[in-house]
Automatic annotation (TrEMBL):
Keywords: ATP-binding, Coenzyme A biosynthesis, Cytoplasm, Kinase, Metal-binding, Nucleotide-binding, Potassium, Transferase. The gene is coaX. It is found in: Cytoplasm. Belongs to the type III pantothenate kinase family. This is Type III pantothenate kinase. InterPro entries: ATPase_NBD, Type_III_PanK. The active site is at residue 102. ATP binds at residues 6-13, 125. GO terms for biological process: coenzyme A biosynthetic process. Its EC number is 2.7.1.33.
Length: 258
């Protein structure tokens, strides 16, 4: 089995692949305090023959602790995805070192399975819309506040507004405070994604394959018929990074440093 671990700001997704098919999947809260014991408890019960572990983490202050857990739990190769550990992947940013592991994984997952150019909407704690150009290079994108992040900020800075459940209301025009907030959050994000994708295609001068992924994509993807919903795109990318030799080395080297 190839085990992929996606550590996001809010959730961690653990996926196991055999013969390129998902045979195990678990979503847990990202723990930022009791890191070692928490992740060890979730990983020690895995009863599979693990060929490799591929990690993507966007929480730098716990990444090394998670690597410690992985090296303690598994004897196979363990790969921590970063720009320093990637080959055969072009990044056209002003500073390529700024690209995160999540962007790398979703990009590779996308261009390995779909025709380029590609626009990827990754809807999580932050909503990220990125572009893969015709040659398969990561060209950049936009980052906007995530839907839950936006709601948290709204009720924090305007305390008399209520916290609402994240649901797509039946109508754009709200008829009470709850439905007005829900409409603004959900339909507002839909329009942002549509509008930004249209502007990106205009800048590129061509139509793009459009994908949507991320923890909150399930909430709004039906409102975006031009986007293909790929809930496991990042995990697929981590698997492909390992299988197609994009990764230079494992975390553990001869002197046991990483």
């Amino acid at each position: 089995m190839i085990l992929t671990i996606d550590v996001g700001n809010s959730n961690t997704v653990i996926v196991g692949y055999e013969n390129n098919q998902i045979v195990y999947k678990k979503r847990i809260i990202t723990e930022k305090n009791n890191v070692v014991s928490y992740y060890a408890s979730h990983l020690e019960s895995l009863e599979f023959n693990i060929e490799a572990v591929v990690l993507s983490s966007v929480v730098p202050n716990i990444t090394n602790m998670i690597v410690d857990v992985l090296t303690e739990q598994f004897t196979c190769g363990i790969y921590n995805v970063s720009i320093d550990n990637i080959q055969n992947f072009e990044v056209k940013l002003d500073n390529p070192n700024e690209i995160g592991a999540d962007f790398i994984a979703t990009a590779v997952g996308a261009f390995s399975q779909y025709k380029t150019p590609i626009i990827i909407a990754d809807i999580g704690s932050a909503s990220k819309i990125s572009v893969i150009d015709r040659e398969g290079a990561f060209s950049g994108g936009v980052i906007i506040p995530g839907i839950q992040t936006s709601l948290d900020a709204l009720v924090h800075y305007i305390p008399h507004l209520p916290t609402v459940s994240l649901e797509v209301p039946p109508n754009v025009i709200g008829t009470n405070t709850h439905s007005c907030i829900q409409s603004g959050l959900t339909y507002g994000l839909v329009v942002q994604i549509q509008g930004l994708a249209t502007r990106m295609e205009k800048e590129l001068g061509m139509k793009c394959t459009k994908l949507i992924t991320g923890g909150y994509a399930e909430l709004i993807h039906d409102e975006l018929p031009d986007f293909v919903h790929k809930p496991d795109l990042l995990s697929d990318g981590l698997r492909i990074l390992y299988q197609n030799d994009y990764l230079k080395s494992t975390c553990v080297i001869d002197d046991n440093e990483y």
